[in-house]
Amino acid sequence: MITWRSLFKRFLSDPVAIGAGIVLLLLVLMAVFAPLLAPQNPYDLMQIDIMDSELPPSWKDDGDARFLLGTDAQGRGVLSTIMYGTGISLLIGIGAVVVQAILGVTLGLIAGYKGGWIDAFLMRLADIQMSLSTLMIAIIVLAIFQAAFDANVYADYAIVMLIVIIGVAEWPKFARTVRSSVLGEKNKEYVDAARVIGLPARKVMWGHILPNTLTPVLVISTIQVAEAIMTEAALSFLGLGMPVDRPSLGSLIRSGFEFVFSGQYWITLYPALVLIALVLALNLLGDWMRDVLNPKLRRGDD
Known about the structure:
It is a single chain. 72% of the residues lie in helices and 0% in strands. The protein is mainly alpha-helical and 302 residues long. It has a domain at 91-264 and 273-294: MetI-like (MetI-like fold, Orthogonal Bundle), CATH 1.10.3720.10.
């Protein structure tokens, strides 16, 4: 079994993992401390002046020293909106994965341990869910939600809606992963010993089997955060995600897309670069964790 010490040692020996970790750490810190670091609060109307709209980055001839990366059509500093928008994207991504994990781990654990018709029913349900596109489900639900409520209500519940929709749509990936691990664990001696001493099925599943199935869950969680962020960005780009006054990286890209061909490239370019860096860092770390925590690959290295 790999220890935290050996895991950290392997991390320090992999330059790609180190680079991805540094990028992710910087982006997370930037998002967490955005209220302290951002030169402007893009949610505070008192700090926004429409006369500052569409200013180029500060190093351009017409740039303003107050706005390092320029401003958008509303006069908000692009750097400030990126800082706040990264936080919203991360919040939605992590929140959606928490929902996925709760549903997927619970149902996968039950399916793998109980077997029989319960397993068959839950896995057929997972098959049906996986046959439907997450983006298609989200578009339908969010379009109905937008049509049923006014813009203010939608803005208040947009983050919760995105977390729940993306989370519910992706639970089968966790369920299948946990189920396959449970099938390999439930007939081992320590599980038989737990049954012999009279522990109820609930305690056997959650107290003994689950801790030994968390390694693949940790790996898939990292990758799923990246997928959830990309899904939210796609929905926001289509106008079904975060509202303009509470921008995520996806809605920032959308808000400046119409200005790309008129010369104001910075409104879309810099949020897009941050989104690419965030998703790439998460995927690289997920791939590294999969390789390190995979017992077969570790034996090959040794």
